[in-house]
Amino acid sequence: MKVLITGTAGFIGFHLANYLLARGDEVVGLDSINDYYDPELKYARLAEAGIPRQAIEWNQIVQSARHPHYRFVRMQLEDEAAMRQLFEQERFNMVVHLAAQAGVRYSLVNPEAYVQSNMVGFVHILEGCRHTQVKHLVYASSSSVYGLNGKMPFSTSDNVDHPVSLYAASKKANELMAHTYSHLYALPTTGLRFFTVYGPWGRPDMALFLFTKAILEDRPIKVFNYGKMVRDFTYIDDIVEGVVRVLDHPPQGNPQWSAQAPDPSSSPAPYKVYNIGNNNPVQLMDFIEAIEEAVGRQAKKEMLPMQPGDVPATYADVSDLVRDLDYQPATPIHQGVRAFVDWYQQFYVEHTEKRV
Question: Quick check: helix, strand or coil at residue 309?
């Protein structure tokens, strides 16, 4: 297959591109390399994939020096003309859309970035797929769409009309937009609600990275909601395995769908939404304990109240993904945290020291 992956300078996109290349697919990666978090980490991921920083220019496709079937382009999703030209020129078989303005808390201070990237940019993805007959669009939604929902575990059959951040609202909007294109143009689309992904090469704005860095630097970690948080932490390898299984099975439409009792996660159109998580929620304090064990020292904890836009718990019901695609996440939290800490100590610390 020829696959467009947006967000390949990002955490999940980097790992997914490696997986698809290893099995023989042709991959075109796209990323804007914005500065929401340290661009040096994004450039380092690209360099690991054989894309040297000095070769990267706006809207110019760069050939990987490491993978003969991997090319990369720096492009803004909001650039309608450039996006249209890319789709027309490349004629992708499949698209995995992971690029987005990420972060719940950042959406409180820069809401416009979410509208431009996550909504305007997504329209350009949908239009590109529609006009070039892409066989399947898989796109990143988020567990944050569950918002004020209190029923656990979160199910894709639940109503998600009460988001508590603009980031979450933009992801819910993506699901609605995707359904429209599936209905009007028979474009197969699958949305994946990711649940707290972690692992090597992870994002610096996520708890695992922040906690590990602070503990190693002997600084206190910020523990929100006084530690009374639960997250369905999901290891990156398990996430990538799930994404690939979904990619390889475009939705066909649900013949049992009822307009009188509509299932929000499916449709008569070729449309589907899945949760993708570990289905095994972990207490935040247990997660911190796993980091302490991997790092070999105790954390200094600054206990704080809940942050605006955050939720106390996430817990994924992945039963439909298990049923449909035999998805079985298998990485224990201590093993996954150890893998991240090993990567952080062996690569990130050394990389930072070289820059200094």
Answer: coil
- Give me 349's structure tokens: 């610390």
Q: How far apart are CA 348 and CA 346, in angstroms?
A: 6
- Candidates 39, 197, 40, 56; CA nearest to 29 is 56
146 is catalytic: no
**Dmax of the chain from CA atoms?**
63
Of the residues 36, 106, 146, 167, only one is catalytic, namely 167
319-355 per-position pLDDT tens digit = 999 999 999 888 999 999 999 999 999 886 666 555 4
The dihedral built from the CA positions of residue 224, 226, 228 and 233, taken in this order, carries a sign that is positive
Query: How many CB atoms lie under 10 A from the CB of residue 83?
Result: 22
How many helices (H) and strands (E) would you count in the chain? 12, 14
Burial category of 175 from C-beta neighbours within 10 Å (exposed 0-12, middle 13-18, buried 19 and up): buried
* CA dihedral sign, ordered 331, 333, 335, 337: positive
Measured CA to CA, the distance from residue 277 to residue 234 in angstroms comes to 5
Nearest to 98 by CA among 29, 177, 51, 52: 29
Cα separation values, 214 from 143, 210, 278, 342, Å:
26, 6, 26, 15
Which residues lie below 8 Å from residue 334, measured CB to CB, with a gap of 6+? 290, 293, 294
The CA-based dihedral angle spanning residues 26, 32, 34, 36, taken in that order and rounded to the nearest 10 degrees = -60
Task: Provide the angle, in degrees to the nearest 10, between the axes of the packed helices 121-131 and 80-90.
Answer: 30
Relative to beta strand 189-194, strand 271-276 is: parallel
pTM over 0.90: yes
User: Tens digits of per-residue pLDDT, 284-314?
Assistant: 999 999 999 999 999 999 999 988 867 787 8
